[in-house]
Amino acid sequence: MSDSPTEAPALHEDESHLEGLDQRLLDALEARRKGDVDAASELLRSILTVEPRLAEPRLELASMLLEAEQLQEAEAEAREAARLLDLGGQWTEDVEPGVLRSLAWNLLAEALYRQADRDEVVFGDPERWNALMTEAREAFQKAAELDPTNEHARHWALGMGPSGAGEE
To answer: 78 and 31 in one domain?
Structure first.
């Protein structure tokens, strides 16, 4: 395995350690659909314990963390998923790579934007607010470029304006 950020994560030649993880992911999705976010989170984290280089469980976890307003944790999971996908580390084959990468960047942008929108940031350090808004705008733009059909990303990439001022 290489630590170089420009190379795709190398999976073990013998990928037997991945056996059963796909079913765990499906079980996590079903648990979330049924509203059992604790079970879903536990299943997703168990997948990442076995293979931390899988982006898809991180995307689902980031989405759940966003819903729970755990924004810094959501940012961390989305950021790592985007990094892995940008390196070519997609696990699933049934989603177009650009679409999945767009989703990761969109989740990262959303986590950043929501952090910037919190009162303690809005009324706090203007440099922190500006940095979060700038990075959120750039992440929405990247998401829109990766998947031009991502209307959410396109809206926010355009709506945030060049200054990151949140104009709509």
So the answer is: no
Q: Measured between alpha carbons, how far is 139 from 132 in angstroms, rounded to an integer?
A: 10
pTM score > 0.85 for this model?
Answer: no
CA distances 14 to 24, 50, 89, Å, are: 20, 14, 16
Summarize pLDDT for 27-59 with one digit per residue, the tens.
999 999 999 999 999 999 999 999 999 999 999
Tell whether 83 and 34 lie within a shared domain: no
CA-CA distance, 65 to 71, in Å (whole number)? 7
pLDDT at 159: 76
Residues 121 and 115: beta-carbon distance below 8 Å: yes
Same domain flag for 155 and 79: yes
What is the four-CA torsion angle of 139, 140, 146, 147, rounded to 10 degrees? 160
Q: Which domain holds residue 164?
A: 71-87+95-168
State how many domains the chain has: 2
pLDDT value, residue 99: 93
* Predicted confidence (pLDDT) per residue in 73-82, tens digit: 999 999 999 9
Amino acid identity, position 47: I
With 0-12 / 13-18 / 19 or more C-beta atoms within 10 angstroms meaning exposed / middle / buried, residue 8 is: middle
